[in-house]
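Blinded run. Sample ID left blank on purpose so nobody reads anything into the name before looking at the predicted structure. Input follows.
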Amino acid sequence: MSVEELAEAVGVTPRAVRHWEAGTRAVGDRAFGRLLEVLQCGAQVLTGRDPGTESLADLRRDAGMSTEEVASALRNKRGAHDLRISAEKIRDLERGRRVRGWAWGSQETLGQVVRMLAHVYRIPDRVVMDAWRRSRPKDPLPLLPAPRVRQPAGKLNAWSSLNDRQRTYLTCIFRQDQEAEEEQRHARHLSAERRPAAEWRRMTLALSASSDAVGYTRIQERLRAAGVHDPGAGSSVAALERRGLIFVYRDRVYIDGLGDLPRTRVEMTRPGRAVARAALGVRREAGPPAPLLSSWLWKIMVRVARAGTQGVDGSLAGRGPHYLAVGQSPDGRTPSRGFIVLRHPDGVTHGPYRWFLTDSGQHHIADHLDAYRSLYPGIDTEGINGSSG
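Blinded prediction complete.
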């Protein structure tokens, strides 16, 4: 694009574009958002800022919004009336200054502001919480509202539409699905090779052969224990598939001494899993509350924290750095937490790089160490005192 074409697309003068390119004038907030749309790129491409280092102001600019636009969007949110949100208060918030108003002194209220900002910017709560801590390191930590519990009425209606036999099939398939999930979780803890979910979630239901020759599958064993002694792949399975509760796959498999046999495999759909959970009273295993880390990421943080000024070998394995390290992104869109960084040790200018905690990582540990010890009592944090100094 020419300077004139870019200026016209963004809605500014060619002179403004020349100033941007020369580095003599910063791009305004509103123009920045339009510039991202015109160039079809992420903010990091234009700013050179590493993911995992965002401030509150960065998040707003990345969303292409001015402080006036953010204030207007927040004023329309439920529970925002007493905050009397203005562009001036948004600027004070971003610059680490005191925000006037009695309601702004409550950690619960600030947690609501975090959630509202996350909704307006269309990013996870954790990203706003991390940027908040970088922008306002001396403030009390906002307390996020508890997540809303969705009512399972629709799922229970789907369950009530099934007959007893269909419910038995769905229950047995669900139980086997959960057992397979637990086996995979255990294998990951043992650092075993990770199998794709598309492979292990497809479970063999039946083989077209005599049980005397091939025995019973694990799902068939569950069905027999539930009183279904002719577990095949007939009308009950077809009914569950029509309702979108399971997928059914039919293929052939070679069995020594018997040759190629027709095989029926089943896989739970997400709606099917949700219906079974609601009907059986099985709570889905919840992840840690925002902004806490999962157990395996917390183990990495503990390891790096323990290493102190020595750092951890730069060959830190796995996908942990994608979630934790400055300059990384777990999904290519949302930034990493920015809690660890790969660099030379202090005072060293050459040689291997090592992993160290960032200021954000130290603050995170100081803020949440007690919560982690309660959440993951099996992870040894002895020697970590939570000081962010």
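Unblinding after everyone has recorded impressions. The chain has 19 helices and six strands.
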